[in-house]
Amino acid sequence: MAIRKLLLLLKPIDPYPFLQTEGASLIKNPQVLKYLESRCKVHKNAINFCQEILSKKPVEWKPISRNDLAHPIRDVDMVITVGGDGTLLHASHFIDDSVPVLGVNSDPTQAHEVEELSDQFDASRSTGHLCAATVENFEQVLDDILFGRVIPSKVSRISLKLNSEPLLSHALNDVLIAHPCPAAVSRFSFKIKNKDGETRHNKTVNCRSSGLRVCTAAGSTAAMQSAGGFVMPILSRDLQFMVREPISPGLTASLMHSAFKPDQLMEVNWYSDHGTIYIDGCQVRHNVQLGDTIEISSDAPVLNVFLAHGISQIRSRY
């Protein structure tokens, strides 16, 4: 498909509005202040650079702040996000499987900076795991796409049903189901079922814990990995799950962390008075209550993403 019309989705140009309040900075550490101001400048320069490159190409494009995005994205051939993984995640909730997306990491982490400032604070910037481009290679990546030399990868998303009713939002990274108070115990049970109705385990797994996390392959490098999960191949359709901090799991301990296949689903029964489904962090939330049933599967439409590994593989052929 020819790409002629683009939407440029931008992380806010001033992502740190707390730097100045009535003329005075809320940050007193000069090194931290310098670091945050640098991040703002680098991000703003990246936006300007991407806009300059787009102005030279035979495409129609329109910029929009991610904060102003309120409706599904349609009538464009591609979305370019400029920010980090958070901006691409935000965009994914407005994109179906008909519109591909390219992420531009506007402010990549600088290893020397992290090392130099490690005794003072965490100077990490943007990881950009899902971003195929930076300002260093944006024009080359864009040309590869416009000339049809690369195609997007089909990245799995999570589909959710609450009491048999589909939720409109699909998770690109992960889903967390937990009590809204992080110190409270979440009570629930789950079982893995084949979509033809058969169960993988003979018994339901009953849990008291701090919640349940389910991730896609794309999300396996995020919170799941931090919690001790395993990294999955980016194009895997499997879903990985982990019960967080289970209380006295006993003989079911080995069932608290595993994965299930695309022809399977997870059925969760909620037994706490209150609960929340968090989709991709705090991007989207849904409340659950005692007696609710949540169905989790990979039935959601894929997200077509231009990934760095796909672009590098294509280039190796030329």
Q: Can you characterise this structure?
A:
The protein has 318 residues and is of the alpha+beta class. The chain is 19% helix and 29% strand. The protein has helices at 30-55, 85-92, 111-116, 138-146, 223-226, 308-315; strands spanning 5-10, 60-65, 78-83, 101-105, 153-155, 159-162, 165-166, 174-178, 186-194, 205-209, 212-215, 239-243, 257-260, 264-270, 274-279, 284-289, 293-297, 303-306. It has a six-stranded mixed sheet with strand order 2-1-3-4-18-5, sandwiched between helices.
Topology, number of strands:
18
Order of helices and strands: EHEEHEHHEEEEEEEHEEEEEEEH
What is the CA–CA distance across the termini? Answer: 22 Å
What structural class is derived from the secondary structure elements? alpha+beta
Q: Give a quick account of the main beta sheet: strands, pairing sense, barrel closure.
A: 6 strands, mixed
Principal-axis shape: globular
Can you list the strand order of the major beta sheet? 2-1-3-4-18-5
Percent of residues in beta strands: 25-35%
Helical residues, percent: 10-25%
The mean pLDDT is 91
Question: Are there runs of 5+ residues with pLDDT below 50, and where?
Answer: none
- How many DSSP helices? 6
Return Rg in Å: 21 Å
Organism: Camelina sativa
Family: Belongs to the NAD kinase family.
Keywords: Kinase, NAD, NADP, Transferase
GO molecular function, one term: kinase activity
